[in-house]
Amino acid sequence: MDFNDTPEEAAFRAEARAFLEKHLKPKGSAPASRDRVNMLEKAKAWQKTKAENKFAQITWPEEWGGRGGTAMQNVIWGQEESKFDAPTGPFAIGLGMCVPTVIAFGSDEHKKRYVQKALMGEEIWCQLFSEPSAGSDVAGLKTRAVKDGDEWVINGQKVWTSGAHYSDFGILLVRTDPKVPKHKGLTMFIVNMKQPGVEVRPIHQASGGREFNEVYFTDVRIPDSDRLGDVGAGWKVALVTLMNERLAVGGSPGPDWAEIMEYARDHGTLSDQAFREKLADWYVAAQGYKLTKFRTQTALSRGQTPGPENSIGKIITANHLQDICNSAIEMQDHYGIINETDRMPADAIFQQSFMWAPGLRIAGGTDEILKNIIAERVLGLPQDVRVDKDLPFDQMKSG
Amino acid sequence: MDFNDTPEEAAFRAEARAFLEKHLKPKGSAPASRDRVNMLEKAKAWQKTKAENKFAQITWPEEWGGRGGTAMQNVIWGQEESKFDAPTGPFAIGLGMCVPTVIAFGSDEHKKRYVQKALMGEEIWCQLFSEPSAGSDVAGLKTRAVKDGDEWVINGQKVWTSGAHYSDFGILLVRTDPKVPKHKGLTMFIVNMKQPGVEVRPIHQASGGREFNEVYFTDVRIPDSDRLGDVGAGWKVALVTLMNERLAVGGSPGPDWAEIMEYARDHGTLSDQAFREKLADWYVAAQGYKLTKFRTQTALSRGQTPGPENSIGKIITANHLQDICNSAIEMQDHYGIINETDRMPADAIFQQSFMWAPGLRIAGGTDEILKNIIAERVLGLPQDVRVDKDLPFDQMKSG
Amino acid sequence: MNFDFSEDQKFLAGEARKFLEAESAIPVVREVLNDDDKAYSEALWKKIAEMGWLGTAIPEEQGGLGLGMLEMCVLAEEMGRVLAPVPFSSTAYYLTEAVKLAGSDEVKNDILPRIVAGEIIGCYAASEGPGHPDPASLKTTFDGSTVSGTKIPVTDGGIATHAVVLAKEGSGASLVLVDLSGAGVTRKTLSTLDPTRGHAELTFDKTPGIRLGAAGDGASLNDQLMDKVAVLLAFEQLGGASRALEMAKAYSLERYAFGRPIAGNQAIKHKLAEMYVKNEVARSNCFYGAWALSTDAPEMPEAAAAARVAASEAFWYASKENIQTHGGMGFTWEVDCHLYYRRAKLLAVQAGGPKVWKEKLVRALEQKNAA
Amino acid sequence: MNFDFSEDQKFLAGEARKFLEAESAIPVVREVLNDDDKAYSEALWKKIAEMGWLGTAIPEEQGGLGLGMLEMCVLAEEMGRVLAPVPFSSTAYYLTEAVKLAGSDEVKNDILPRIVAGEIIGCYAASEGPGHPDPASLKTTFDGSTVSGTKIPVTDGGIATHAVVLAKEGSGASLVLVDLSGAGVTRKTLSTLDPTRGHAELTFDKTPGIRLGAAGDGASLNDQLMDKVAVLLAFEQLGGASRALEMAKAYSLERYAFGRPIAGNQAIKHKLAEMYVKNEVARSNCFYGAWALSTDAPEMPEAAAAARVAASEAFWYASKENIQTHGGMGFTWEVDCHLYYRRAKLLAVQAGGPKVWKEKLVRALEQKNAA
């Protein structure tokens, strides 16, 4: 038992690190930029540089511009890149989820047209699945596609779409047949986000920010040739997309035990035994999550498929974050209500994450859905009773 | 807002108290007796004394030997009686649940035969609903009654029956028709517990004690005239029985915040801030429960029907008890594992209740069932999906 | 046994609810939320004064209605339900109770009638930085006639006409009444987690002030004042928690997933049942606090603390799990869940956070046990 | 990255599981449970000695297998799964590690081979009453050659041949090895919450003993010993917690209510998911403890504490909610749930309860941060 790289892994890590050091500054060496427009240009440039040096998609075959590397190399790359000020955000979903779906289900024309440009950072993709009335129950979505000659006409609304406003293309899941049970009437398309009828509106979040979007489709036309998979096979395609979600390799969602311990030490409340016991619990949970990822990486490093243990991640981290921020604010007492970065201890990170934490408990699967997933997929317990299982979609109750 | 009796309530309380002082010793004035046989005789004698003085069943009409009193008088009686060493246990279920069912559904002959004798403490009743495979789902019970001339022949097993070994009669819920959905095939009977074919076996509980019983029925014959309600109407009858469960009026299930606070003070751990915060939480919960009962009593005192607020009781107290006992044991560290009354602080009450608490979280409705009840009956949320709703009982899956 | 509000008090609650649902509906709250320059709803505040509510617990000789603290509790719960964006607590709890508790007759006769008339807005200025203010180590000083120092944050500090200031005087502490139109007052608006209520930093530079009570009695008076305020804030929290449960219930019944209302899932049912249990525990403890408050009972310290602890926990849980029940919708600015989440946090840390009140509670239990 | 047991260690785990499921099945546990005069299963103990397990982490020069602590962790988890009613921890963790840590060569050469041979049963005697024993205020004394005082409770104290005693020596504390066949030893059997393991009160009256390590080093040696023991006990707890989850899962799948397995209810599904999360957190922290233990890493204090805290919480939750999942059946003597509930409590308070280890953990974090 050790935490060392194998010789091969160490060599790859050194190579990755040398490349990163050549092109980027280590994290924290300069203040984070808040310039959104420039950020996009920088991200495109960085993506191009990575692609030209075969660091863009570690596990993709070389045929598609990847490195043909191992899953473990991908983890190592993620670890190293995350130590630098790398502007990767805009490409995470497109290259992580959308383009692999195009590769899996698209025609040769699709692949020629889209893959290389995405890899080189020239085009950005978004994923259009969730709808206002279809969140946990994604397959209950209502956006309609009606065939009209060689084209489909799309009407409806998507929601919580990251990066919709700067994306060039999207993969779009729509309902093509409302007369069959909900999972069976869905179809997946490639959609050009810059065409008429596509309207992107930022969502004003409860936390105040506007990182996500609503996307409205009004009589948007998509040629049948931009279909991914068969008509009615959209759910199968979507499952492949969702399975391609990258293995999370770090990136704490906000302040953790170390930050609140530092705050408590600086403000003289570290001697409070009640706080100390909570701190121990937070440490144990955070370590539990971090070390569980090491177990997953060990499986990857041994060339094995990781077990289900990684599924505990977001249930722990999201609730944890809410609890830590709440505790920090309560320790600050009345003063803790102030939400100004320049006045507050730790630049008000506890306050800001306090407002973000409720979203983290919902995004990408609510606590409740994640527990259901652990119960069903990891422990093998029965699914919930599904009253809508065999019901045609248009006879389903929807409130 | 005050905690005072109305003049009428005060007068009744004084009358009750005078009667109690005349016949019993205040609690704690003598060590509790562990003599089970004698206990039963004492209980019968006390019941007779109460009945002769119209204190046996406060709210029953005088016609049945009651006092014709108010629900609030019943609460006051319960409060006062609980301050004395009153041996009431063996009659709680019979007079609280079984005999009222006989009064509601029995024939005139039944009422003449059974009510007076029960009230006078001459005969004891038990309630026979739960079965090994029908706990939370009582209506899923399997004990069969088959008609044979003017009699029914009973075969099956009941479980968790309090007092079965000293009971003379029981009310027995059985399945008379397995071809209809489960709620519709049940019938209620009066059963003589002393007849051949009725076998009572004590259950060895996880806590070590043997307070409950299994009851086996082998070809037990019951005349059709001892049926309560129509054939197939047993579930309706059972609901009346269950609604007659007495309003809980005190009786803490074990050590509470005061006991653990006393322990902590005596052993120098009251200064631990983590303990202090837990103590505050326990106090708030215990007060919350106690004061909620005061709200219920207020409604009774005003002649109103209490709201649903009392339903929070056992969810709070059972988990609370487990948590307090666990904390007390952990404060005692390795020493806390010792389970000897003469060696341990507080006569090992924390250890003993630690083993009892898991049972309290199950008996009379599990935590999960109680939350369902609050959700459905108090908040009006939908019932769980019932896959067995319309299914004939004999086609139901039962594992 | 009479452990409930009276019919008259329940009637008042009903009337207050009708009024507030009409006059302090969410659009009124959002006007303050969305306008950084707005620290309260002036229109609502004016109407509340016209209703006479500000004089609820002020004696008739000072122009009040001469009702009692139970009526204040009833109003507090209703204000909490609708997140009323007005300086009601600052004026009718903190300032009014401080003056009633320790003001001279002259001060009472000056201040209380003007509170009733809606001419005065109060605020309470104790905090000076992170952590609960300790009367023994305050930096703000009172020299017998003027106050100097900085208080941050002060709820409603930007709009208040008068402040109750906790200041150091000699080796002790005093509660000082400061007319904020006096010399040497600087106000800076603060951004907080709850933008539906105004907050400011107040700096005093030899600002004239009148001591409430005797010199050095500040710590004890402040404790008494906090006990009273705690019960009233607990009722506001209870109102907010009750409303959050109602919102979660209503949404879970109308939101469908997998072909039926999400309210049919045990995960949601049990979550809402937990909310209900916490809310009932809070309500019962609040009632006890109200009883102690209205009767000046010796049980006041533990009753106030228990009400505060229970209500803080109930509102915290209900407000966060209300968002969770709403799913993605609950995390949008347009849906009201976050307003309750924000207010829950503000009310939890005002007048001392849960840790402060748990410690007060245990101390009270220790003293009772020792006595 | 190599954060897992090796193939050899996993093979050992598999073999151990097969052996223990055959030889230490529940009837073996219940023999000890139901017989007050039985403090352990002698037959099982003999077989375990024959398997060589007692020498797993004992060097070959003293007759052991010369494997490492990782192999001990693997065995500990398997012992925990089956609630093995033998003095394995007392002998192979406490006594063996104390002797390895601080025994002279003479002591090592005397004791360790006899442990391997199954001739010696160990025990650890520190507690003297309610609360965690503080090396600075022990009542049991060591005068350089004899021990006097009373230790209560001592796990396996009734059957042990040798005890590791924490005693006061001068102004400090020492760890003392006592041969229990020596003069002045009195043993009294104790009833405990876990009757599947024997417990006794041991009284020493000038009983000869040999100090382990230098005079007064006892507190520090005891800390080091507890860190090692904590990791091994954590693996036992992890084994118990894993088994409790398996039991809950199996029962919930076979128990029908309302026409389907209770495992289909979200209340049960989410309860078991919580168990799984806690167990995985415990497993990962235990692995880290095993790594630190096997490499003598400087991170040992926080790694041991985190493993212990996580595993105590996991076993507590799993054991109590396993009963709850079983409903009424889970509260019967015949069903095994209560055995895990009892063992969970014993393992949680042995070698210091959760509060003790949380404090150790935070102290370790403070020191690391200060360094």
From TrEMBL, chains A, B:
Q: Which residues form a coiled coil?
A: none
Top-level taxon of the source organism: Bacteria
GO CC terms, sorted:
plasma membrane
Q: Where is the Acyl-CoA dehydrogenase/oxidase C-terminal domain?
A: 232-379
Residue ranges occupied by any Acyl-CoA dehydrogenase/oxidase N-terminal domain in the UniProt entry:
6-122
**Which terms are listed as keywords in the entry?**
FAD, Flavoprotein, Oxidoreductase
Q: Which family does it belong to?
A: Belongs to the acyl-CoA dehydrogenase family.
User: What cofactor is this protein dependent on?
Assistant: FAD
From what organism does this protein derive?
Hyphomonas jannaschiana VP2
Keyword Flavoprotein among record annotations:
yes
Which residues does the UniProt record annotate as the domain Acyl-CoA oxidase/dehydrogenase middle? 126-220
Q: Which SUPFAM superfamilies match?
A: Acyl-CoA dehydrogenase C-terminal domain-like, Acyl-CoA dehydrogenase NM domain-like
Q: What is this protein called?
A: Acyl-CoA dehydrogenase
Cite a single Pfam family from the UniProt record: Acyl-CoA_dh_M
Which GO terms fall under molecular function for this chain's record? flavin adenine dinucleotide binding; oxidoreductase activity, acting on the CH-CH group of donors
TrEMBL record, chains C, D:
Q: Which SUPFAM superfamilies match?
A: Acyl-CoA dehydrogenase C-terminal domain-like, Acyl-CoA dehydrogenase NM domain-like
Q: Where in this chain does the record put each Acyl-CoA dehydrogenase/oxidase N-terminal domain?
A: 6-119
Acyl-CoA oxidase/dehydrogenase middle domain spans which residues? 123-206
* The protein's required cofactors: FAD
Q: Which domain of life is it from?
A: Bacteria
* Chain ranges of the Acyl-CoA dehydrogenase/oxidase C-terminal domain: 223-353
InterPro entries in UniProt = Acyl-CoA_Oxase/DH_mid-dom, Acyl-CoA_Oxase/DH_mid-dom_sf, AcylCo_DH-like_C, AcylCo_DH/oxidase_C, AcylCoA_DH/ox_N, AcylCoA_DH/ox_N_sf, AcylCoA_DH/oxidase_NM_dom_sf
What is a single molecular function from GO for this protein? acyl-CoA dehydrogenase activity
Q: Which residues form a coiled coil?
A: none
Keywords assigned by UniProt, alphabetized: FAD, Flavoprotein, Oxidoreductase
Per the record, the similarity remark reads: Belongs to the acyl-CoA dehydrogenase family.
Task: State the PANTHER family in the record.
Answer: ACYL-COA DEHYDROGENASE, ACYL-COA DEHYDROGENASE FADE28
User: What's the protein called, per UniProt?
Assistant: Acyl-CoA dehydrogenase family protein
